[in-house]
Design goal:
Layout lengths: L6 H12 L6 H15 L3 H8 L8 E5 L7 H5 L4 E6 L2 H13 L5 E5 L12 E7 L7 H10 L1 E10 L7 H7 L10 H9 L5 E7 L9 H12 L4 H13 L1 H5 L5 E8 L13
Parallel strand pairs: 1-2, 1-4, 2-3, 4-5
Antiparallel strand pairs: 5-7, 6-7
Length: 272
């Protein structure tokens, strides 16, 4: 029976099998200003916010907020928003942007998913936008539930790959997929929660490069430093159809899940 399946444990095993290496805060610190500029014109944020029910909502907690992609546009409509992130650089951009917009109702919280959240305020809404690839997804969901009164919103990748499969295959950098959104659905189901599900499509992370140098930098940012033979292979592929390369090939899909918070007991972990 499905009730006997420990989806939280399956998620942990799948994540371990994918050999995904978490990025240290310093990586996001270095990209903070770039991502802050992009956030100001984010169609993804517009789509995300369009799916939110803000009726009777005055406070919001944005976990993994980055430069404020979701919480800053909402600060104009709410009494107070809290942006939580483990990257100090991202939070600096959040605070700077809030000041530029003369917002006085934005609070930055320098914490991670694994931190002690005892001092984190309970808000009407909790958001986890593209920040839920964590070591323990069930525990992360529990934390969101405990810090939301009305609703939780989360986006999680569809398909389990952050780079187009064609590029990964071209470079011989094919890796096992990371756990995708279906784990969120199943873990919530095991908690007795039935989420609303929709999807947001965004351009590939490789899209928008003006030339091969920019494209190669985007690829390296996703798969790691490229060797000279890999650069030569990628250059030949790029020259074959620059417009295809500049589009980033296939777009990314994000599952947007929302639910009413429900405090439950996290299922006991099984031994590996």
């Amino acid at each position: 029976m499905i009730s006997s399946i420990d989806f939280a444990e399956l998620y942990r095993r799948h994540l371990l099998h994918s050999q995904r290496t978490p990025r240290p805060a310093s990586v996001w610190d270095a990209r903070a200003k770039e991502l802050s500029r992009k956030a100001q014109h984010s169609s993804y944020a517009q789509d995300f916010i369009a799916h939110m029910d803000l009726d009777g909502v005055s406070t919001l907690l944005d976990v993994g907020c980055g430069p404020g992609t979701i919480c800053l546009p909402l600060a104009h409509r709410l009494q107070h928003v809290y942006g939580l992130d483990y990257s100090a650089g991202m939070l600096d951009c959040l605070v700077e942007s809030a000041a530029d917009q003369k917002l006085t109702n934005v609070t930055a919280l320098h914490l991670s998913w694994d931190s002690d959240w005892s001092g984190v305020p309970v808000c009407d809404i909790a958001v986890a936008s593209r920040s839920s690839m964590v070591n323990d997804l069930a525990l992360a969901i529990e934390k969101l539930n405990k810090h939301a009164r009305k609703r939780v919103y989360m986006t999680h990748i569809v398909g389990g790959h952050f780079i187009d499969a064609q590029i990964a295959s071209l470079l011989g950098r094919v890796h096992a997929a990371v756990p995708d959104y279906i784990y969120v659905v199943n873990i919530l189901y095991a908690m007795g929660i039935h989420p609303t599900l929709s999807y947001i499509e965004t351009p590939s992370r490789l899209a928008g490069a003006k030339d091969f140098t920019g494209f190669a930098e985007k690829v390296a940012g996703s798969v790691g430093e490229l060797t000279p033979p890999e650069l030569a292979t990628l250059h030949a592929w790029y020259n074959d159809n620059p417009e295809r390369a500049q589009s980033g090939v296939a777009p990314m899909q994000w599952a947007l899940l929302s639910w009413k918070p429900k405090i439950t007991v996290i299922p006991a972990r099984r031994s590996a």
